[in-house]
TrEMBL record:
Signal peptide annotation: 1-21
Protein name: DUF3373 domain-containing protein
Domain of life: Bacteria
Record keywords, A-Z: Coiled coil, Signal
InterPro entries in the record: DUF3373
Coiled coil: 22-56
Length: 570
């Protein structure tokens, strides 16, 4: 471009000089040369700017932003109790034993004889007629201890990707890394459901020094000039309102953070209803997703499938969103929930001693070894429904407060796996293994199939304070409270999934508009076991500690997390 204009200017000067040479003196020629030099300099600057714009258009199609957070925790757990047992149908066991199905009880080599010899207390209780009906079969002696992890460091890196595809089409994604310092193994020992790494929780689980795709989706807005939009991909379903306040960031996800903080793949069909009603920010959305794929890539052989795909669907409505007031309604269901997800874990030695005695013989020789295994569910356990209503208000002087109430309903179908059915314990029956040499306990059904309703409340406030802001939050979950918030990255476990009480206080110091320090403390008071999972019947924590109730996994009574973090947005 610069070369073309320079040639045109030079030609003009040449023709001008040919026609009027006699009238142009040396000074005028010098002036024209200076003007040409000035024009050339301006063209160079213009050319440089045009080149940058063209280069940006051609190469910088994706805008990359993100945040980096390093955090130090001091974690403390009180009255951690392990009191494992399974409910066994001893009437069925007695009938089979009397019929000779398990061999001669007086023979030391028969399956029944070997079982009685290995469990003399069980044999004595059975022979005295103390074991009738469905009763707990204790698997290991109760243990109890306090646990302190004085310092735990974590690092979280999130890269946000944005691209404008067309006037009304855009792409967005987020890559996340979340790790403990000094740990990139990718799996944890299975001592709680919070330690289980799976598709829906990978972004909130400290799994290693690699980036995972937390989000990847496109938005197609104003379809055919209407108020309708469509979005498909890995959904923005984490850190939704009002949970974003404690993160000190803008609204991070579409659904209520009180009910959903869980990664899943799906689609959203939305309509900007405010254009019709005149209510600012009013949007109605129908959301669909899949939480589990049962056939392709599963561990079952060929077509021998006993699980089902888990599908989710429902409505998420922003009733009001005017910058000051925010009112949101959520209602959705999950059909054909299985007793787990595809995932990985390190199998605890203690559980191997109970469920894998042959393997346990070798594992005792290597006490510091755990074998890593890929886990899959064993069957469909029922359906779930969730609903909630949340309100938040932000004033002009930067005061914020919110209140949210949530409801969950579990509808068990009576099926059960090793750790139970839907909010229900499994009833085990004794059977011979495939070789007929050992008696094993097999989960057959749940204790009942009653519908289980739970509720949760979540309230909080945030106010300006010297150097930043101060916040207080409280949440409570009932016995059967079961939201989908397992991807929340609290090390003790998702605070919003807690069956019990959680109180949190924090102070945020703003270093600059893109950098802040947060000091926080969380106190958990668990009332029931199994927070964050629909599998197994919740037990009163006090009863487990007293030894009158049982739990396959360790139970925490109270816990607290004192932490400090530094976050940089870029």
């Amino acid at each position: 471009m610069r070369t073309l204009i320079s040639i045109l200017v030079a030609n003009a000067l040449l023709f001008s000089g040919a026609g009027f040479t006699a009238d142009i003196d040396a000074q005028k020629i010098a002036d024209l040369k200076q003007q040409l030099a000035d024009i050339t300099e301006e063209l160079d600057d213009l050319n440089s700017r045009v080149d940058k714009t063209e280069r940006h258009t051609a190469l910088d199609r994706i805008q990359i932003t993100g945040d980096f957070r390093t955090k130090a925790h001091s974690l403390h757990f009180q009255n951690v109790t392990w009191n494992p047992a399974m409910k066994v149908n001893f009437s069925d066991f007695g009938a089979k034993a009397m019929s000779g199905a398990f061999g001669d009880p007086s023979s030391a080599t028969s399956p029944l004889g070997k079982m009685m010899a290995a469990n003399p207390e069980l044999a004595a209780a059975f022979q005295s007629g103390m074991l009738q009906g469905v009763m707990p079969y204790v698997l290991a002696p109760q243990t109890q201890q306090d646990i302190d992890n004085d310092i735990l460091y974590t690092t979280r890196l999130r890269l946000d990707l944005k691209a404008k595809v067309w006037d009304n089409v855009s792409f967005a994604g987020r890559l996340s890394m979340y790790k403990n310092w000094g740990d990139s193994t990718g799996v944890k020992v299975f001592d709680s459901w919070n330690s289980f790494t799976m598709d829906g929780t990978s972004s909130g689980n400290t799994s290693g020094d690699w980036l995972r795709v937390e989000r990847a989706y496109f938005d197609w807005k104003n379809i055919n000039g209407s108020n309708t939009y469509l979005s498909i991909g890995r959904r923005p379903s984490t850190y939704g309102p009002p949970s974003h306040y404690r993160e000190n960031e803008m609204r991070g996800g579409t659904p209520s953070g009180h009910l959903v903080n869980f990664n899943f793949d799906g689609a959203t069909l939305g309509y900007n209803l405010g254009e019709i009603t005149g209510i600012e920010g009013q949007v109605v959305r129908f959301c669909y997703g899949q939480g589990f794929e049962s056939q392709f890539g599963n561990g079952e052989m060929f077509g021998d499938i006993i699980t089902k795909d888990t599908h989710l669907g429902g409505f998420n409505i922003d009733v009001i969103n005017d910058g000051t007031n925010f009112l949101q309604m959520t209602l959705f269901g999950a059909k054909d929930i299985n007793d787990g997800f595809k995932g990985t874990m390190a199998f605890p030695t203690q559980l191997a001693g109970i469920f894998a005695p042959t393997m346990y013989q070798d594992m005792q020789k290597f006490e510091n070894f755990n074998f890593v295994t890929r886990v899959q569910p064993s069957g469909v356990i029922g359906d779930m429904f969730l609903g909630g209503l949340g309100y938040a208000r932000e004033t002009e002087n930067d005061y914020k407060w919110f209140a949210s109430i949530g409801w969950t309903r579990a509808e068990p179908n009576g099926n059960a796996g090793l750790f139970g059915g839907m909010l229900n314990d499994a009833v085990f029956e004794a059977e011979l293994n495939s070789t007929g040499t050992e008696i094993i306990m097999v989960p057959k059904e749940t204790v009942d199939t009653d519908t289980k309703d739970g509720y949760g409340v979540y309230i909080g406030m945030q106010m300006p304070a010297p150097g930043g802001k101060f916040g207080l939050e409280y949440n409570y979950g009932s016995e059967y409270w079961t939201p989908f918030t397992q991807a929340q990255d609290d090390p003790i476990g998702s605070k919003l999934a807690t069956r019990g009480h959680v109180a949190e206080a924090y102070y945020i110091f703003d270093i600059n508009p893109r950098m802040f320090i947060k000091l926080a403390g969380l106190y958990y008071d668990f009332e029931y076991t199994g927070s964050g999972t629909p599998v197994g019947a919740p037990q009163k924590v006090d009863d487990v500690i007293a030894g009158t109730a049982y739990s396959m996994l360790p139970v925490v009574d109270t816990a607290y997390d004192v932490n400090a973090s530094l976050t940089v947005n870029f």
